[in-house]
Amino acid sequence: MTIDMTGRSASGIAADLRTRIERGELAPGTLLPSVRAVAADLGVNRNTVVAAYRQLAQAGLVEARGRGGTRVADRAAVAQEGYAPDTVLRDVGTGNPDPGRIPDPTAALARSTRPVLYGEPVIDPGLEAWAREWMADQLPHDELRITVTSGASDAIERLLAQSLQRDDAVALEDPCFLSALHTVRTGGYRAVPVAVDAEGMTVEGLRVALQAGVRAVICTPRAHNPTGASLTAERAAALRAVLAEHPYVLVIEDDHFSLLSRAALHSVIGPGQRRWARIRSMSKFLGPDTCLAVTASDVDTADGLAVRLTPGTTWVSHLLQRMTLALVTDDAVRAGIERAAAHYAHRNAAFAEALSARGLPVTPGDGLNLWVPLPVPAAAVREELMRRGWLVREGDPFFLAPEHAGSFLRLTVHDLDADSADSLADDIAIAAGTLSAGVLPARARSGRIEA
Q: Measuring CA to CA, how many Å separate 97 from each of 92, 175, 284, 285, 320?
């Protein structure tokens, strides 16, 4: 495609291209001419064209892909978590916690009604004191600050915004949590994929990303979404050693499953890291509508995060903060959270065992979901399962790099009863070709999945 540009200055060239993009004349993915070619056609210095392309990249209109050239950005929506409310199919791809295992907030809310006025501290003192002790686990920094945001994604967005500029590179696990990927892309940053294996983020992948100049790293230490992988002590130590060579890279540790996790926490934040943050959301154990996360960080990062909060929400509702504190310090609620954690782990392990018995080996990880490798394309399995009454989630949307992708389903099965779980396991095995319709393995004949 030939693009006849106009303009003699960087702003003029950028304005011409912006108009064409906004009018739809240049579709997403369109490759722009090289800097050399544009400079020759317009008779301007190459630095002028470089500056024009940089303006467009900072506006989120184009993406610089190194040797792949500069292309018009694709603003298509990134897939998100949640159920499909309009489907008649049984949805087992939601990523949601069990609503029956979310604590009732009524009594806690009733104790949290003191009016709060302008000028009061933005963080409830009781919640701050509790969070400071809770968040300090394995943090090798005596001086830390606590910040409260409207969920983990809100914290990540503001942490990146106070540290980065558009087109800066961010290292993300691959496959990646959808919300983190969405936050990075909408912020105009470049996502650099770091492969994940059974022990979490890989050391070599992180090393390559840092060599490529990433300015921030987002790592899930346990219950990685979607794979369920958790860092081992050895892997975490190796990652800390690599990060130690880059002390001013912002390291964001997203410990989203926290109180529900069955895995020990092994942190990637080392003693020499100058810019760091650990985030823990309440969404998994108090419910997504809680919309509250606590962040522990170094002082400078906390100051920047507070500045990013000031023009908008300024603070998270003190009603919500006090309700959260009342719930997480209630012995009965904490016992219920522990029962929920055991339930999620048991149900995922039972379903993984059922699939393995049907010829689909699955290793259960930590978290709400089960990551299922397939011997055939996931799209074909998904379509067959739709014909059988199930709505599942393919693994493809979670991957950044094609070379890291395989064929996977991410399933949310913890709320299925025994009959439904058996039916789903049969249907997945039939769709994947490891089981013939009407022919059950010996294990399936001798006993069902136990609720």
A: 12, 21, 6, 8, 20
